[in-house]
Amino acid sequence: MSHGPLSGLKVVELGQLIAGPFAAKTLADFGADVVKVEPPKAGDPLRQWRMVKDGTSVWWQVQSRNKRSVALDLKQPEAQAIVRQLAAEADVLIENFRPGAMEGWGLGPDALMALNPRLVVLRISGYGQTGPYRDRPGFALVAEGMGGLRHLTGEPGRAPVRTGVSIGDTLASLHGVIGLLMALHERQRSGLGQVVDVALYESVFNCMESLLPEYSAFGAVRQPAGSALPGIAPSNAYRCADGAWALIAGNGDSIFKRLMAAIGRDDLGQDPQLATNTGRVARVAEIDAAIGAWAAQHPVAEVLRVLAQADVPSGKAYTVADIAADPHYAARGMLLPLPQADGSTLTVPGVVPKLSRTPGGHRRAAPALGQDTDEVLREVGLTPEQIAALRQRGVVG
Question: Which end of the chain is more exposed for a tag (fewer CB within 10 A), N or C?
Answer without folding.
Answer: N
